[in-house]
Amino acid sequence: MPKISAKGHNMPESPIRKLVPYAEEAKKRGTRVYHLNIGQPDIKTPQVALDAVKNNSIEVLAYARSEGSETYRKKLATYYQRHQIDVDESDIIVTTGGSEALLFALGSITDFGDQIIIPEPFYANYNGFSVANGIEVIPIESSIDNGFALPPIEAFEKKITPKTKAILICNPGNPTGYLYSEEEIIKLKNLALKHDLFLIADEVYREFVYDGIQHHSVMSQQGLEDHAIMIDSVSKRYSMCGARIGCIVSKNHEVIKTALKYAQARLSSPTFALMASEAALETPQRYFDDVIHEYDERRRILISALEKIENVKVSSPKGAFYCMAELPVEDADDFAQWMLEKFEDKGETVMVAPASGFYSTPGSGKNQIRIAYVLKKESLLRSVELLRLALDQYPG
Amino acid sequence: MPKISAKGHNMPESPIRKLVPYAEEAKKRGTRVYHLNIGQPDIKTPQVALDAVKNNSIEVLAYARSEGSETYRKKLATYYQRHQIDVDESDIIVTTGGSEALLFALGSITDFGDQIIIPEPFYANYNGFSVANGIEVIPIESSIDNGFALPPIEAFEKKITPKTKAILICNPGNPTGYLYSEEEIIKLKNLALKHDLFLIADEVYREFVYDGIQHHSVMSQQGLEDHAIMIDSVSKRYSMCGARIGCIVSKNHEVIKTALKYAQARLSSPTFALMASEAALETPQRYFDDVIHEYDERRRILISALEKIENVKVSSPKGAFYCMAELPVEDADDFAQWMLEKFEDKGETVMVAPASGFYSTPGSGKNQIRIAYVLKKESLLRSVELLRLALDQYPG
Prior knowledge:
With 396 residues, chain A is of the alpha/beta class. Chain A contains 13 helices and 13 strands. In chain A, helix 6 links the parallel strand 3 (115-120) and strand 4 (136-141). The longest helix of chain A is centred in the last third of the chain and has 23 residues, at 285-307. The interface between A and B is large, with 82 and 82 residues.
């Protein structure tokens, strides 16, 4: 029997999805499961985007342009300009999700055995994309005690080797909800310039910032034009996770030229989803105001409810729609599985994402979980109550 | 300025798309360009697939399941069973195009520096996917003189090293139109079994076979269950290139388990396109009968017109919708570009795909082109006339 490759073996299982079979079992037993485990919002997709697809007059569902149509890229540039990101259509390659944008970025700037530095905890699939590209993730641990702020820049500098090609951040962060200050972005910029590294920023949660704090894009930093690469996606912005449309943005046209070759090899992004994404740019500001208001309320309610549980430490996220919590358990993987397998209260239980999968340092984050506040307030409150009851009853 | 990686540099430019700027210039000059260069059919997408999307009642465009829904995979299995391919839903991972299916396959079974053997000429993007995976393509040249039949199996065996992980075929072939006989498939099967290699077959043109000849899938070969991997796509079957839905199929569940990890890392395939693809399985047989009849007529008309041009050698394709032609020119890349830049007849010219990009042996196929018969008969005839006139006038 021919063998799977070492790379195939090393591909990590999704930490968010590995509990899914237990959730399915729970549902089969008739238990209602509240899903705080995934970043799938319950927010409605803008009607203008859905209508564009419903009212299409396509007769032949043809390939789109590999890099995305000029019209769509021009409109995207206008959107970015409104967010103090001065780019034009030649700086953009449309991709099949933010996932593909990151794959193209890594494929363009790294070779087998290269390294990228990422503050941890980080979005778990960065591990998978790194394994797929044959590169190594060098984590720099951030701490729940200061809300997962940027670790001291010296900690980054110490890890730089000739194999280091980039620093990758997610801003605002998944899973941390941390929003980098301009001062922190400037520290990263100076480091990138000093060592001639790329600074890749996954900014798919740009819109979701709270407490009146401003988002600072790596693309707005003067002098960083050759070094900055932005990853973006329509998934969260318009609650269109199933569109699978994103883009890679850079003023460095060697990067764009190379990403285009990857884009051409896979021919095009999905045509219906491109229609929806282009139309979504017409979404009225009111939609965002309402959505941000809703998330902000959920965030406050969730944090304040979590803070009331004894021995639970919770971070104070300023962006995205996640928060990290430290639980009085030894092994949050086991606890999360136990909640699905053995626990219920009045026929209900809750599913969370154990945080260990968001760390690449072995053993880190073992008592932490990520909570996505993508449910309505009542459901959030009930979920936290279930969590509290489960912690009381957990034998582990 | 930080540098693009060696891999990024080595990613090949799409040979089909590199002439696009010249075609665009020609159009700007007012010249009508007949496109024989890409596999984008003019055939209408089945109405049942388009309707499924038009009549959708989605309010939140959510992620789909990473591996595709159970319903869709079950229906796909039923479709395959009708084609003498005995698989069930557990043998299938739905992907974002056939492209992604091949990426998942290569990512699952190869490591950096490994080799795959491919009869050439082959679909140009196999090069790109190989570079992206850090593996080497070992070509075995087939010849226009026998219609690009399978080269002697000894030629394959000679190239097998400890780094060889798979043999990859496209059946029916793009760009050759060649349809492998069962005898040829059995030869490949015996070689794969003898050396414990995977046999990957890109069968996206399965439906497009002519002259009453039968298609033989690697998935129908007894004893090859652990070794066979099939790549498939809805793109050509339903003229839905813009859907970007495909799948990887194998009875080897180590392969499927590994491909699933890649699928989870990129979250899901596009939701609208999945709806269209599932509905497309309801397409009445009549649609295919009409489409195959149309392609078959085009094929006959095209081949017979090409054969009438002096010093043009043309293969006799039995499947897909491409044919290869050898022209009395030294450099078909230059000739194809010249047709777009310098040639026109009554305001019209033609765009073809130079074949050099379908070979990985340097210098091979330099006087060949690939013609896609994806246009109506009158346009095909006019295109061949333009080709004949261009050959007369070409100074190169």
